[in-house]
Structures are given as C-alpha cells and as structure tokens.
Amino acid sequence: MELSVIRTPDLVVAIDVGSTYSGYAWQWRTNFSSNKQNVEFNTNWGQGTPQIHKTNTAILLKDDSTAQFGLKIVTFGYRAEHRYATICSDGKEKEEEYHLFKRFKLLLYRVTGRDGEQEPGVEDSNGILFKLSDIMALFIKAMKEDFYTKQSTTQNITNVLWVLTVPAIWSEKAKQFMRLAAEQAGIERKHLLLASEPEAAAIYCLNLPPEQQAAMNNVGTPGHCFLTVDLGGGTADLSAVRVEEDGLLRELCCERGNLIGGQSVNDAFFQACNDDFEGTEWKKKFTEATPFEMMKIEHEFEKCKLAIGAEEMDETIQLPLPRSVRDSFRTGKIKVNRSQTRISITGEEDLRFETSFVRDHLFDQACKMINQVIETVLENQKDIQTVVLVGGFAESPIVQENIKSLLQQKYPSVAVVVPTSPFRAVLMGAVLYGHDMFIYRSRVSRATYGVKGISVFDEKKHDESKKWFNTDTGINYCKDIFDIHVEKGQSVVLKEQTGGKNYIPLYKNQKSITLPLFVADTCGPSEGNVMYTTHPSCKKVGEIRVDLSDTDAPNSERKVCVKMIYGGSQLSVIATELTTGKEYNAEIHFNA
After folding, report:
1. Same-domain check for residues 537 and 570
2. DSSP secondary structure letter of residue 261
3. pLDDT at 280
4. Cα dist from 288 to 276, 345, 418, 442, whole Å
5. Range of 108's domain?
C-alpha cells in the first residue's frame, strides 16, 4: 500500500517520465532540512538535447535472450536516437536486432481499468509490436541505473525513496501500471511513491524563496488559492489548491486535463507542410528519410518552437529537408501549392517559413484548448487568484502571452504567472514531496469508489431479480450491491480513514474475503448514488483481498471492517477483524 512506504528517507530520487522529455533529480535528507532549494538535477545527457534538465523520452534496446524480457538496454534519451541513426547509416551492425522506442507514455491514457481490457502495445521504429509494460519498465530501469552510475557513492544507501511522477488525469489502472513497471525495474514497493505532476508543481511553488513567491502573486501565502497548469509535450494537467494557515495544501476540486501539449505544435507544422505541397509523394518520401535526417529536422524545429517570442520582429527559419524529399522536389513529384504561401522550399535544400507563421497559426489551436480547460476550473472555483504555468511547453513566450491574453478577457482579476524555471517545477516538487508526503491535508475524490457486496434482502427497496438464497445461512440476500466507501467530490483528509464497512464470510471455513472494487465516474452526492454494480456507470477496477487464514473463529465472529484511505495518489485499504482488533493485509489490485 502507498501509505506503507518509508517515511524519512535519507535520499529521495524523483523520476519524471514525460511524453516528450524525461529526467531525474535528487536530494539528501540533510539538504532538505537545511535548504529545500538545494535539489540536484542530472544535466549530463549528451549533446543535442534541447532541454538541459531532461533528455528525450526514447530508449534503444537489442535482442538478447539472457536479458530481462529478452531485451538488453543499449542506451536511452538523445543518445538512443543518435546511436540508432548511426546503426542504420553505417551498416556495421544488424539493424533488425535493434529496437528504438519514442514517446510511448501517451499510450497509457488509453488505459481505463475496465474488465477484459488488453494492455496496449507499443511499436518500435520498424513497426514491430512489443508489450508497453516491458518497455516502460526498461526505461525506468535505464534512468535508475544512470543515476547510480553517475552518483556512485549512493549505491550502498538503502534508505532511498524513489518518486515516480504520473499525470493527475490518469486512471487508477494506469497509475498501477506505472507502479508495477517501477517494481519490474528493481524498485521495491516500500521504496516507491507516486506523485501527481501538477500537485508536485504546486509543492514546488509553495517552497519557492519569498522573493520568487512575491513575484508570482504571493502564491505561498496562507489563504491563497492557485491553479497549477503543467504543460508538457503531450498533455495539459491541472490541479487547484488552497494554502492552509499551517502551510499545508488543500485540493479544491478534481484534477482536470486534456491531451494537448507541445507535440500538437509539431503535428500542426507537419500537417501544414502536407497542405502546402502538391503531390502524393510528400508523406511517402518523409517516411523514407533516414533516422539522422528526421532526428535533425525534429530537433531543429523543437528548438525554434520554444525560442520564438510572442511579439518579436519576423524572422526566417530554415530546416534541412530529407534527401528523399529534395530529390522528389527536383523531379517535380512534389510541388509548392501556389495558393499557399506559408511554407516554401529554398534552393531545393531547406524548408523555409517565417516566425509569424509559427506564432500565429501553429500555436493557436493548442493555446485555445489549454485555455478552455483552465476556464472550466475557474468557472467553478471562484476563489482562485493565480494561474501558474509550468512544464516544458510553458517555457514558450508564445504560450505564456496567449494564455494571459485569453484569460484576461474573461477573468481580468486572475494573475497568470510563470516561475523562473518552469521546466524544473514538477521534478523539484516531486523530490520535496518525497521528503514531506503529507504536505497535502486533503484531496478531492474524482469518482465514487465502493465494493460489490450483499445485503439482507428487503422487499421494499431491493430489485426482485437480485434476490439470492444462501443455503449455508438460510437467508435471502440482495446481490450486486454497490457499497460506497468514497463519494465523488468528497474531500478526504490525508491519513484519515473513511467510515468503515463491515463484512463477514458467507461460507463455513472461508479463509479469505474477496470484494470486487467498483468505480462510478458519474455517481456522487449531487448526482444520486448507484444502488447496483450492474448499473451502466459502474465499472470494476480491481479487488480488495482480505486474508483470514490466521483465525479459526466461527463466521459470525469474523467481522472485518474495511476502510479506504484516499490520501495518496492511489487508494489504500486497511482491514481490521473487529473481535480481536487485528489488522489484515488488504490491497487494491487494479486488474493488474
């Protein structure tokens, strides 16, 4: 369970697996106690990485029957892309033995936790399908081993807590997926903590020096309500909090988010290229480009995308074209669409476009979608005074100015601020969270959680079709009852157990109780509670398993009180036998 992790680690290491970029940071307990700002980041990623604190979310693997999952880690990050491009170009090694994976995190947004759901697969650079869990585990393992290699003095430290960041809008099953991947990467459960990315950013803001907080509309002041907006390569992830009088944080509403981020600008650029050139060869020839050529054009566009100012003078940008595209342009198979003047080819060598095209067209849709998500929170949370933009995409001056301008039209009193290092916010906050995991006083449940149970049949309120006769007890029961533990919209205090529900074994000599866990996204205090787990809004997301093998008491005396603890980034459970007060191990398995 999440609440069983070590409380006072000597060392905290946070890993942020991003949609586009990933990195890690760490801090010793002694430094946390003396200076919370003293968090160290790995910046040695090799040449070519646009962001100094992170590297590309990419990993290069090689077939090896003796290695974990039959795949040997060659390298990761920017080096993985560069090494793979070299292998493909020099022909000295068998290309088919190598597998490059990029930007695979976004696949986890498809994971919902429904019964029978299959694990998503991930394709390598040649279209070969692999298990996503294997690739994610190996990527986390590569990051972990890179830390120990570069910080060799930490290898004998046993009291280490690893914090793995996850999007707030992920399903519980997706979070469980990451937890299991980390365990497969060699991180023990008691040394692992999950941190919501926008919540980590809020913790970062809370711990900024006073002068920086003052420059950000005093976000750390008691009573201040602010919204952190984590803008990454693939997602916008939001979390609204209030700073309590004692400095702790209280979540104001369920997290919000959307699949929109920096990658959408890249996609818009390549779509514009497709629209601005005539001929069926355009997309085909791009697929024939060498890995080196594609790596260069992607990295060059990424750098210019974040560097373009919101109001600076227009400049010309040129990106190198792959040879296959240049050849088709020379032979006339690809032509410039004369009705479009946004993108051109100069000297038959480079793509040419103006910074105004990027600023006015490519960012437009992404910024509007981000603003819409922000406004959905502000409409219901009138006390929010500040919107804090963090994450790699938030470094773009265009994003900053567009969001400020759009919000100003409807919410002129809400300040939009950006910390001096928005790219470091999530990682640094995750490290601080590992040292002080109870910085949040309470969180809001985004769904209603309960278990599938039974109740003595009541003719007045139960459906006749749910009646079930137990031959052991001689009693009519109602089956498929949705026994609610945590309601949607309920504010749950961290470390505080919810009101317990009592359960007893139904059969003689029963040594365990297995209670299916259900969630209802549309069920809550304001929407009416679901009575049966067969309701369309209910879905099974796991099981609560309570071990009763240590007691020989009769069934009637083996009452078990199950309480949910919904304070961390995942649900946890404590089950207590009421006659003895003894606690049993109970875990939630999200259909793992």
Report:
1. yes
2. S
3. 67
4. 20, 19, 41, 53
5. 2-214+424-437
Asked whether residue 179 falls in the same domain as residue 315, the answer is no
Taking only the tens place, the pLDDT of each residue in 29-60 is: 999 999 999 999 999 997 666 668 899 999 99
* Residue 561 included in any domain: yes
The answer to whether residue 319 sits within a structural domain is yes
Q: Which residues touch 517 (CB under 8 Å, ≥6 apart)?
A: 449, 450, 451, 452, 540, 541, 542, 543, 544, 588
Question: Is the residue at 222 inside a domain?
Answer: no
Whether 363 and 402 have beta carbons less than 8 Å apart is answered as: yes
Work out the angle between the directed axes of helices 132-150 and 172-184 (0-180°, nearest 10).
50
Beta bridge partners of 388: 228, 417
Q: Are strands 501-503 and 560-565 parallel, antiparallel or unpaired?
A: antiparallel
200 and 67 assigned to the same domain = yes
- Return the amino acid letter for 115: D
Assess contact for 334 and 328: CB atoms under 8 A. yes
230 occurs within a structural domain: no
Determine contact, residues 388/229, Cβ cutoff 8 Å. yes
Residue 66 shares a structural domain with residue 158 = yes
Residue where a domain terminates, one of 313, 341, 362: 362
- Secondary structure, 3-state, 116-164: CCCCCEEECCCCCEEEHHHHHHHHHHHHHHHHHHHCHHHCCCCCEEEEE
pLDDT tens for residues 486-510?
888 888 887 777 778 888 887 777 7
pLDDT for the residue 592: 43
φ/ψ of residue 128, rounded to 5: -85, 135
Query: pLDDT tens-digit profile of 294-326?
Result: 888 888 888 888 888 877 678 888 888 888 888
Q: Can you give the length of the chain in residues? A: 592
The candidate with the shortest Cα–Cα distance to 59, out of 114, 113, 8, 102, is 102
H or E, element range at 402: helix 397-410
pLDDT of residue 556: 65
Same-domain status, 159 and 132:
yes
Largest CA distance in the chain: 89
298, 263 in Cβ contact below 8 A?
Answer: no
Do 84 and 175 belong to one domain?
Answer: yes
Interstrand relation of 582-584 and 586-589 (parallel, antiparallel or unpaired): unpaired
Task: Name the pairing type of β-strands 11-17 and 343-346.
Answer: unpaired
The answer for residues whose C-beta is within 8 angstroms of residue 134's C-beta and 6 or more apart is 69, 71, 184
Total domain count, the chain = 4
pLDDT of residue 281: 67
pLDDT at 535 over 60: yes
Closest C-alpha to 542, from 570, 522, 503, 577: 570
> Do residues 17 and 164 share a domain?
yes
Strands 448-456 and 512-520: antiparallel
What's the distance, CA 576 to chain centroid?
33
Tens digits of residue pLDDT in 178-224 = 999 999 999 999 999 999 999 999 999 999 999 999 999 999 999 99
